[in-house]
Design goal:
Layout lengths: L8 E2 L2 E2 H18 L3 H8 L15 H8 L1 H25 L6 H20 L12 H11 L1 H18 L2 H19 L3 H18 L6
Antiparallel strand pairs: 1-2
Helix pairs in contact: 1-4, 1-5, 2-3, 3-4, 4-5, 4-6, 5-6, 5-9, 7-8, 8-9
């Protein structure tokens, strides 16, 4: 057991702060589970979007069923999930610690939101791929990391015209951008975990 030098603290955090961490992680996962692609398609009377197209419940597949305007709307809604959880986490996580400490915890909150989008418990753990949610989260987290991620994806797409492949490459290179921007081991690990999770979800689209 490692104590931080203050009574009632473990690894630098009090039990009360650990309760905030748990609630942030749980809340982010539950927000992520609000899979708008699934629910909007259901609301429009088109049934289960996972029975069409790619079988995912994300914005891209919902757009195949409902059209491009709905794709844009659902992408925005999914992106707002990531943006909201990162902004809220940044404000409610205690101010008594340094920015680097807060950063890796906020990134972890974003991870749980993406996890909820990809594996929503109420939909049998069959959701979307999490790209819009990640991009929304990066807007609230670090615009430089967002710019590096989007630029990589655009460049690879321009060279290959393969959208899913470009997404995988951008996800694979994202930790390197995070290393340059943060240089913080915990923040870097959190970004790596997000990248691995999403690359796993994209794995079957590597050649498409």
């Amino acid at each position: 057991m490692v104590l931080a030098g203050q009574t009632g603290q473990l690894f630098g955090f009090s039990l009360e702060q650990y309760s905030y961490i748990f609630l942030c992680f749980l809340g982010a996962y539950l927000i992520g589970c609000l899979n708008f692609g699934y629910y909007v398609v259901r609301f429009c009377g088109k049934g289960d979007v996972r029975r069409s197209g790619s079988g995912n419940a994300g914005a891209t597949n919902a757009g195949r069923v409902l059209g491009k305007k709905w794709f844009v709307l659902i992408s925005v809604l999914d992106g707002l999930k990531g943006l909201i959880v990162t902004l809220v986490a940044s404000f409610i996580l205690w101010p008594g610690h340094g920015q680097s400490d807060k950063t890796y915890l906020v990134i972890t909150v974003l991870f749980f939101c993406i996890l909820g989008h990809i594996f929503p418990f109420q939909l049998g753990f069959q959701g979307g791929r999490g790209m819009a949610t990640l991009i929304g989260g990066l807007v609230g987290l670090n615009c430089l990391l967002l710019a590096a991620f989007v630029a990589t994806q655009v460049v690879v797409w321009a060279m290959t015209r393969r959208a899913n492949f470009s997404a995988i490459i951008a996800l694979g290179l994202m930790p390197f951008a995070a290393l340059v921007l943060y240089g913080n081991t915990y923040s870097l690990v959190a970004i790596v975990v997000i990248s691995i999770l999403m690359i796993y979800k994209y794995r079957k689209y590597f050649f498409s």
